[in-house]
Amino acid sequence: MWPYIATLLPSIGLLYLFYVIMKHILEGDRRERIAQAQWERDHEIGPPPSDHS
Hints:
Helix content is 83%, strand content 0%. The chain is mainly α and 53 residues long.
């Protein structure tokens, strides 16, 4: 039984590493999209209009 576990262990480790890396990439992308939308909202409004008559 030990040879089977020893054979699968590197593949399982790489799969876990791939999962962690992809999770961080997708989470970073989600945060960047939120920050981009916030930045666009903040700069879309502009300064308040002045009442110079």
